[in-house]
Amino acid sequence: ENKKNDLSNEMRRKISEHPCYSGEAQHKFGRLHLAVAPKCNIQCNYCDRKFDCVNESRPGVASEVLTPKEALFRTDQILKEHPFIHVIGIAGPGDPLANEETFETFRLIRDKYPDLTLCVSTNGLLLADRFDDLQKSNVETLTVTMNAMDPDIQMQIVDHVVYQKKHYHGREAAELLIEKQLSGIQKAVDSGLAVKINTVLIPGINDEHTPKMAKRLSEMGVYIMNIMPLINQARFEDRRPPTEEERSAIQNKCLPYVKQMKHCRQCRSDAYGLIGNDLSQISKVRGDEFRT
Ligand code: SF4
Ligand code: SF4
Questions:
Q1: Which of 104, 151, 218, 261 could disulfide-pair with 226, CB 3.0 to 4.6 Å?
Q2: Which CATH entry fits the domain spanning 9-286: 3.40.50.2000, 3.40.50.150, 3.20.20.70, 3.20.20.140?
Q3: Residues with CB under 6 A from ligand 1
Q4: Which is the closest atom of ligand 2 to the Cα of 91?
Q5: What's the rounded Cα separation, in Å, for the pair 131 and 139?
Q6: Could you tell me whether strands 30-33 and 272-273 are parallel, antiparallel, or unpaired per DSSP bridges?
Q7: CA–centroid distance, residue 133 to ligand 1 (Å)
Q8: ipTM exceeding 0.95?
């Protein structure tokens, strides 16, 4: 039986202005990513750590890490120029929940801009443990990257996990990550948050498994799923990314269970503006930080 994602009216209004949750909102409303979180607590086989977290980003560019105070300053500057930005997100360059700076930044932004939507993207390892802190920071939209719910599949994707200073490898790492992700997602859904799941589609590893995940995620009450193509690098350098046709076939198999986001552009962890019109990249090239 499908669990209704019973979001409050206020939450529905907020996600209707969130460019990653609503296909219509992407053309009208922007988001600002603050790159305050450099450390990561897992190692995905498709990540070489030189660049931003691949779970929410495209490689080839490394975002400059800001302190929480610098992040607030950047927010002040960018909001002045771009009032259509209603969402402030933290998506890396590592895992936001593995960095205290994430929570400090959210507190600073929340106190100054209580009407903005705060958004976080995580691999989910620490989601259950840090959930209360996220709620205290007023985070309302949440993305968890979940690539498999079956440990035999997950162990092909994640190399190791570091949890409470202990290193886990192989099946044990996969089991721990899945257990933590599922309990964190359930907590978030039960608290009324709009939860989005990012899944990196890796042909030959998790493609057939993905619709099964969609079914379970829908039963849990997840709001939307974003199936992203593998970017082949690091240990997965020799693997083939899915074709557009393959990805869209999997999306169609998942659609009966859970709403599909199809307009993700795999943004940088310091992106801002409208999706697909990444002002941070333009401004860096021109050396003109606050180009309108
Ligand atoms: Fe890299 Fe992100 Fe995976 Fe961490 S969670 S290893 S930063 S892709
Ligand atoms: Fe939205 Fe995708 Fe960009 Fe994340 S990476 S901000 S989900 S468009």
A1: 261
A2: 3.20.20.70
A3: 40, 42-44, 47, 49, 53-55, 94-95, 123
A4: 4
A5: 10
A6: antiparallel
A7: 22
A8: no
